[in-house]
Amino acid sequence: MGKNSLLEVKNLKTQFFTEQGKVTAVDGVSFNINKGEIVGVVGESGCGKSVTSQSILQLHDSFSAEYGGEILFNGTDLMKLPKKKMRKVRGKEISMIFQDSLSSLNPVYTVGKQLTEPMLLHQKITKKEAYEQALELLELTHIPAPEKRMNEYPHQLSGGMQQRVMIAMALASKPELLIADEPTTALDVTIQSQILDLLVDLNKKLGMGIVFITHDLGVVAELCNRVLVMYLGQVIEESDVKSLFEQPLHPYTQGLIKSIPKMEGERKTELYTIKGTVPSLNDKPKGCPFVTRCPYADNLCHERNPELRRHNEDRAVRCWHYQEIISKEQDKHADAKN
Known about the structure:
alpha/beta, Rossmann fold
């Protein structure tokens, strides 16, 4: 691990036990997060984004799932930690914000109770100190009238406030790494923007690393330093954000970026869509995972799955023909300009 490396995931594999047998939801995923860095994980529903984040914290028990690979957090392999020690890491050193805040908050406890409980569990402090810290967190997350909110129940808060409470809870133990699993999905655009601004602000103030899981590339462009594109349980492209939007390497990433609605141009032009859907985990195609939807697929793609290969120091891609595809895309743009 490098000096600034906070989390290093190596060949992570997550399999679920089902009636049809073992199903591989995360298949050999590797990436790293540096201290103070925001890394986006993008892809369609069912591509393995959320399961990857849940696997970092090993949220599924041994009766439902089996894990493989290494998860190095500050040099310690979390996969080898006893359950008791892993519970101390979970919620204290690594925290998670879930996408549905209302179902994640306990409806029968006040906001204050839910905020102070993890503090009393992980820190040697008094109830009064926990209360004061909870108030500070609500202020940090820009919740109006924080003292009033401490005595309120989740159903008394708006969706935006519930999400801010979830962020405050995740920050209660001062984690080094925050995993945010689509935390703005259920919110309107204005509140979504406020939550994103808040995460950027907290990242700068507290210097924590953030893994931000989303299907929204607009959010990635606004928030992240680097991005991982996932498809069918594998990382198919890794890049700094600027390069990804300027020149996506994988046909799937190209499709995702073409699908973003544009303000300029003809209003009658149909939005671009990637044909087909993400295959079932029970029925993965042979060869490249994207082969059934890729306009460039040939016999090699149907036969063998490519490795994730370095394009340069900052970028990697899992595609047999990405260099030829880039050349074709560049020729198309040149012809369109002429």
